């Protein structure tokens, strides 16, 4: 009899673009840490996906992958509670991607909203490649090879999950399971609330803008970055009242500070009872307190540099076993089985 306590499976990944910043934590990683307590979680370093826009420069991919995993571990991901692995280490992703590319209509890919958006935003790069057009097919393989029930995403990524569902549906129509029903389940988007968080210059927090607070920044650097960050542009003089809802530091307080501190911020800012320097100091105090456990966990991996990679190797093994089990079913359904024999 099937257990009622089987956890639903979650799959998500991050591109290895280097050390993670506070925006990555707030937008995804903090949610992952919670999900590992309630779901069967698979989290991967999406190094093949990194090549879709940066195929000409792969020199930093390995070190960036290590940095990302260390940040995951420092943030609280636990290898005893989730599977962490590197995408390119699991060859089955590529095998399923190839099969999916055979059945995915070109029009489905051309209508993905982020396809045109990214081509417009990254005009300096040559993105007229199959890899860039077809990366949602690879995403579908990433998700479906683990038969994930949920994919945590923001609103802007729901279209990618819907495409994955369509690919699963089309695959199941072409290759129905002999026992009846579809071989591949259709995953659901798990909408992730993304609190508003801006960089130190008021724009979106991004390494390309050099406006980030890294999860690995020491306390002195965190405090210095916040000290020089922009605030409500309407507060020109110390005596001018401000509006925390229009201030990047106000946004940060909403994420990291207690209700009591937030109440003081709103009252003090709107009445000009506090200055921006004092307000930034409170934000720094709250943020440093949140980052302190991360800093403590990070020391373990700084003292033992190979430990993070050992965790990945074990995660690779577990992911590979799951992926191969799915591929054995898929090979059988498509007639591509490794085992040729007459029935």
Q: Can you give a write-up of this model?
A:
Helix content is 53%, strand content 7%. By secondary structure, it is mainly alpha-helical. The chain has 2 domains: 9-196 and 306-334, 3-Layer(aba) Sandwich (Rossmann fold); 217-300, Tyrosyl-Transfer RNA Synthetase, CATH 1.10.240.10. The strands form 2 sheets. The chain has a 3-stranded parallel sheet with strand order 1-2-3. The protein has a two-stranded parallel sheet with strand order 4-5. Helix 9 links the parallel strand 4 and strand 5. Helix 8 packs across helix 9, helix 10 (219-227) packs antiparallel against helix 13 and helix 11 packs across helix 13 (276-303). The radius of gyration is 23 Å and the shape is elongated. The model has no long low-confidence stretch (mean pLDDT 92).
Instruction: Please state the average pLDDT score.
Output: 92
Stretches where pLDDT is under 50 for at least 5 consecutive residues are none
How far apart the termini lie comes to 30 Å
Q: What is the global morphology?
A: elongated
Sheet-strand content, in percent, reads: 5-15%
Query: Nearest-angstrom radius of gyration?
Result: 23 Å
How is the biggest beta sheet arranged? 3 strands, parallel
| CATH structural architecture of the largest domain | 3-Layer(aba) Sandwich
Instruction: Find the CATH superfamily of the largest domain.
Output: HUPs
Count of DSSP-assigned helices: 14
